[in-house]
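Subgroup meeting minutes
Present: P.N., E.W., G.H.
Scribe: E.W.

1. P.N. recapped why we're keeping a running log of single-chain structure predictions: easier to compare across weeks, and new members can see raw inputs and outputs side by side.
2. G.H. added today's entry (299 aa).
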Amino acid sequence: MLKQFPIILFLLSVAFCLQAQPQYPKSNLYLFKVNQEDDGSISFGEPRYLTAFNAEGYNNDPFFFSNTELYLSVKEPGAAQSDLYKLDLEHQTKQQVTETPEPEFVPARMPEYYTFSAIRTEKDGQEEVYRLWQFPIDQLTNGKPVFKYISGIKDYLWLNSREIAIYKEEDPTTLSIVNTANDDIQTLATSVGPCMLRLPNGNLAYVQKSRYDDWKIMEKNLYRRREPARTLIETLPNADHFAVLPNGALLMGKGSKLYQFNKFTDDNWTEVADLRFYEIRNISKVIVSPDFQVVVVAD
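Output recorded in log:
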């Protein structure tokens, strides 16, 4: 029995290390042009496969820095962790933006335009710490943490230069607004999904989860924060990521299909595209550019 003890310790340590590693499932990005008809219907065309350079790897967290610049998280097979890349959609080129010992993900352009932010996974002893960093667009310096003490941020949304909405995977998950000047935190909701977006009217939309399947997309008035959020629509079953179109309509993906909901004209989700023809089978995220391009993340 004593001879087996070191083996048991070894297996336990391996299991712990595997559990501590960030998960990088295979995923790819696809770009579509969206055409909107006079009757409000939309169609998708001019498809482009954006991540052929890493077809068997992890490609996620896309964010439009402009209509022609797309940042994303990339982990190639065999790489130790994810780094950030920039895709120039006009010239069809790519550039690695970060190359650090720590993984970075969820890039976003900051409101003052000359900097961008990303979540960095740092080591604090045996613990992993998720900290929000900011970097100059020109990459002339190494960047710095946005907050001195706040960590655990898994997703976020810049509201303006002083306020940021953050998502933390606590028990329960939380959606809060933080003042970057003094780190003051105001919790808006609990048991939420990671996706949060501004609507054209300035309100915040997010997913309210429950123990059941009746998850809802909520609308929160940021100018009257004491008022309760109101329900816009139930999500598609077990889907917690959505996009907002320029006209305010919502877009969600499920399986190979995309669905639209416009609170002014629709009673429920309406199927607008089936992307099986492009071998897209399991959509996990959808994002929209200012000029009405759509990027789909799918495995």
